[in-house]
């Protein structure tokens, strides 16, 4: 049963019976314990303080055995769920058990069992328990995070499962064994009781008691077996007569509740395809009752019949819509739905609410019925396409969408299941209208799709998408994402295989796709529908852009390929295949290769390097045999996966794909090969040696796969014990040998590459070592020079010795005999007490005149008269040229 069906089923139950709430499960889920359940032992308790005290003790013999026994009793006592009032003490017991695990491993099992109980809905006896024990509950749940520190993988996994159970929409129901129910099922009691529902009953209690027994049997025993017992002509006829009598003749509150209960039981039986609903005429009557308010009928059953806006009649209307959805799944019902004008009746709700018209429903009730009717249309209309078109279904839905987008004042209540996320706006109406359009478009009925396009659906939907972007807010994020996803899926269905419609989609549609692709990647992990939106976006690229060259060029100009590669670099497992498929198709455009080669990812990664990395990752997951360098190990089966290794070759018909053929479609290797092939294997930028080794395999993928398939053919011939003629046998053997030779050649080439890279690595390493040695030597020379400098400046004898050695070196470098008439120029300054070479221009910082007359006081130049400006010599530049006499220039 769907969520909507379950909601309708639950809401139709009589007060006082056991009702399961249809509202979304709160965190943590809390179950209400009725008096009957308490009497059966559901809400039991025990002295938990005594258990806690026992666990805190440490100095008694046989203590561990007693502690384990007491905790086991706690688990048995609370096997149906933990009461809110005992939650704090139970979690204290859990904490004590967890603290003992390190030294006493036997406490893992009781802690594990308590955690399993935490995954069940918490129990409350009083309505006020949720408020009273709210703080204890919050603290207890917070303790689960601390328990992740316990060094036990079993406990950690169970904690994760427990937390998942908090968010699970439909927690596993805890069945309490009922001895009487089991005996009644064996005795075929359900069938016997149902068959006598319409028997005369002066007391007026037969129908009520019988329906209660049927409910108990459905809830507390095998539901499938009970449905099977009730799915016979006698039982269905009895239910039909009872329901008709209660609907047409029952006027009390009690009769209406009982009528709804009977309809819920009928809905459950109708889910069984073997139930004779049509044969006994019940289906025709139910369709009549569901539509008589909207479509006038002369049938005497509904003559004078009216529904009020009471809660019971409102629930009846929803249950009738719900059972139509179930009945339409049986194709035998289609003609009855046509005769009953169900589509026309449901379309009466697909319109703007009329303020002036007096209707039998309140505003909130009408809104809920409107949403329920549109949801019902989404299930029924695909089976009744002719009636849908006769009712101008497309025009009605598009007009309704236009109203949904308008600024008309409308206050949506958003109280129902279908109204979730639509309070105070028209988003709920828009969501269900788009679902209806999506269901019709995906029938691929050209009449419906052509009619939609002629009515301007593409432009209208693009406009709605733009408006949802401008109206975006966190509160309505989930419903807006769903609306955007449905719009893109509808556009994909309309534009696929139709170039003119793609042109209508135009650059405006491409801009929308690019906007979605620029979504923050972190949002893909939020679980709020971004993954569905991304899938819809990629699907729209495939269906609305590819094949239309102007749109392809525009997509490339706007850096769409860069965005695709950015997504691929995030390595989303579920989208990888789809993105690569789009890339393969885009590479048919000659402008694409330049964009792909220009892309750079993190650490300057190129597209080719990214694709080769994905290939290696895929082969690792598939279990393909490669050595540590990525080299081929088995040259006969270079592409074989671990799955192919396990599967034995079996003869198959010619129209059935073999394992080798299926492998092409089931992983991304073929697509990577196609993309790299279109980029030119010989000129791929930014590849490492490891990439080139892998590229050798990718380059020969088609050859390997062809050989693999021929090998399968050869093996199948052997298994079927067929003997090919000599020529065919020689050809098969030649193909097999050629494939193996290609494998050997690739393996040899890989070996050469690996060896070449190893030599290159050694050379590079040697260069690094040489550079390091040079650096150390230079450092040593610098240190030695510094030591010599310190020695010269701190010791006069060392300085004089260095000066003599310098002068001797200068003399030895000169010619022994000078040419006649040669002009000789001295390269040094006599009397200068320095050992550093002096050039043509030397700048010397002066020593104050009061200290020994400065550093040049005893030189030959200093003996000459020098002009002194400013009263003190601050800086002296000694300049000596070839043609001029020596002179000093003070500055």
UniProtKB/TrEMBL annotation:
InterPro entries, sorted: ARM-like (IPR011989), ARM-type_fold (IPR016024), CFA69 (IPR048732), CFA69_ARM_dom (IPR048733)
Source taxon at top rank: Eukaryota
Entries under Gene3D superfamilies matching the protein: Leucine-rich Repeat Variant
Keywords from the UniProt entry: Cell projection, Cilium, Flagellum
Cilia- and flagella-associated protein 69 ARM repeats domain span: 46-176, 178-713
Composition skew (Low complexity), residue ranges: 1-10
Any Pfam family the entry gives: CFA69_ARM_rpt
SUPFAM superfamilies, alphabetized: ARM repeat
Positions of region (Disordered): 1-27
Residue stretches spanning the membrane: none
Protein known as: Cilia- and flagella-associated protein 69 isoform X3
Source organism (scientific name): Vicugna pacos (Alpaca)
Gene: CFAP69
